[in-house]
Amino acid sequence: QLVSAAAYSLGHGTNDAQKTMGIIAVLLFTSGHLGPEFHVPFWVVLAAHAAIGLGTLSGGWRIVKTMGMRITKLRPVGGFCAETSGALVLIGTAVGGIPVSTTQTIAGSIMGVGSLQRLSAVRWGVAGNILWAWIFTIPASGAVAAACWFLIKLAGA
Q1: Residue 8 burial (CB count, 10 A)
Q2: What is the dihedral of CA 80, 117, 92, 48, to 10 degrees?
Q3: Which of 83, 85, 9 shows the shortest CA–CA distance to 49?
Q4: Which pLDDT does position 11 carry in this prediction?
Q5: CB 82 within 8 A of CB 64
Q6: Are 28 and 44 within 8 A, CB to CB?
Q7: HSE (CB half, 13 Å, CA atoms) of 46?
Q8: How far is Cα of residue 72 from the mean position of the Cα atoms in its chain?
Q9: ∠ CA(133), CA(6), CA(56), 5° rounding?
Q10: Do the Cβ atoms of 64 and 106 come closer than 8 Å?
Q11: d(CA 44, CA 38)
Q12: CB-CB contact of 19 with 99 (8 Å)
């Protein structure tokens, strides 16, 4: 499972590092550290990939173990398949420039592995709660952002 964890770590770094790099690059640009033309410095790319990749590699097994026990009981081969599936999805979508949730990819992969063992092996109540959280996240984030904007405007900023 070390190979699949390393692949998932690479996929996680490739996917989530884009978001981290964007935030850092915008901060550098707006503070005048990039000059007149916007670009992402190579050191920012390396730092973001390394930080996220190493974080996933060091804590990935614990997270997958926790996810695997909540959704379904995973054996090592199932964990390998779920991590490999998640890694392929993350890397494939990153190549296409499509931001996806690393949590959703691994949760979906774990559900897939569990359902192939037998459908009743998946705790569908837990899976349903995860699905509702996915559906709720985008409108809830939009509502909180709108409320923040409204409060800032109300304060006169």
Answers
A1: 32
A2: -50
A3: 9
A4: 83
A5: yes
A6: yes
A7: 3
A8: 20
A9: 45
A10: yes
A11: 13
A12: yes
Contact indicator for 29, 48 with CB cutoff of 8 Å: no
pLDDT tens-digit profile of 70-84?
888 888 888 899 989
Sign of CA dihedral 29, 139, 130, 113: negative
User: Look-up: residue for tokens 């699949």?
Assistant: 4
Question: Which pTM does this prediction carry?
Answer: 0.71
Residue ranges in the chain whose pLDDT is less than 50 = none
DSSP states of the chain: -HHHHHHHHHHHHHHHHHHHHHHHHHHHHHTTSS-SS----HHHHHHHHHHHHHHHHHHHHHHHHHHHHHH-PPPHHHHHHHHHHHHHHHHHHHHTT----HHHHHHHHHHHHHHHH-GGGS-HHHHHHHHHHHHHHHHHHHHHHHHHHHHHHHTT-
Q: Which residues contact 75 (CB under 8 A, 6 or more apart)?
A: none
Say which residue the tokens 């109540």 belong to: 125
